[in-house]
Amino acid sequence: MTEKAVIQIVGYKNSGKTTTSCEMIRRFSELGWKVGSIKHDAHDFEVDYPGKDTWLHREAGAQIVAISSKDKTAIMEQQSSSLDDLLTRMSGVDLVIVEGYKFESYPKVVLLRNEGDLPLLDQANEIIAVSTWFPYQHPILPVVEKDQYEQLFQIISDFLKN
After folding, report:
1. How far, in Å, are 75, 85, 99 from residue 88 at the CA level?
2. Collapsing DSSP states into helix, strand and coil, what is residue 146?
3. Domain carrying residue 36
4. Is 92 within the bounds of a domain?
5. What percent of the chain lies above the pLDDT cut of 70?
6. Domain of residue 97, CATH code
7. CB-based burial of residue 86 (10 Å sphere; 0-12 exposed, 13-18 middle, 19+ buried)?
8. 28-32, 39-43, 74-78 — which is least confidently predicted?
9. Residue 117 lies in a domain
10. Does residue 157 sit in helix, strand or coil?
11. In 3D, which of 7, 39, 8, 12 has the Cα closest to residue 118?
């Protein structure tokens, strides 16, 4: 694969996005794909801790702080990033699983916890599959029950082959 594929996993809070994302990451990784992931957090988050050296660097005014060890690297910026910007930075991967960013224009799986979530099907675009916690049939899209990860993986795999 020369260009990385992008699949979004979207849904409202507690719909199973993280579990589903991890299942898809695991399955593609087991096939030898190099998989990246991006998680959108609608709230503020913190990956650094008061008193740590990198935290002290940020507190001193650094807008970008990087930390690297022999096994990993993290870069923290004091700014928001668009999904496209983050995807551009994801080099060397075959596939990026994006958790969230409901209204971005990449192929996506929509997770529905209850019937109150159904309007998301009209609001989101480029939907390739639906996963539900309740009985539901869509006239066009494939629908799988929650936790049917092998079936969902097959739908995504087939989509990526085309």
Report:
1. 15, 5, 16
2. coil
3. 5-45+80-161
4. yes
5. 96
6. 3.40.50.300
7. middle
8. 39-43
9. yes
10. helix
11. 12
Q: For residue range 116-154, list pLDDT tens digits in order.
A: 999 999 999 999 999 999 999 999 999 999 999 999 999
Burial class (CB in 10 A: 0-12, 13-18, 19+), 131: buried
Residue among 93, 52, 26 at smallest CA distance from 18: 26
Domain count, the chain: 1
Q: Is residue 129 part of a domain?
A: yes
Is 37 within the bounds of a domain? Answer: yes
What whole-number distance in Å separates Cα of residue 105 and Cα of residue 123? 11
| Whether 96 contacts 76, CB under 8 Å | no
- Region class of 17: left (phi > 0), else alpha (psi between -120 and 50), else beta: alpha
Q: Which long-range contacts (CB under 8 A, 24 or more apart) does 101-106 make?
A: 101/8, 101/10, 101/38, 101/40, 102/8, 102/10, 104/8, 106/6, 106/7, 106/8
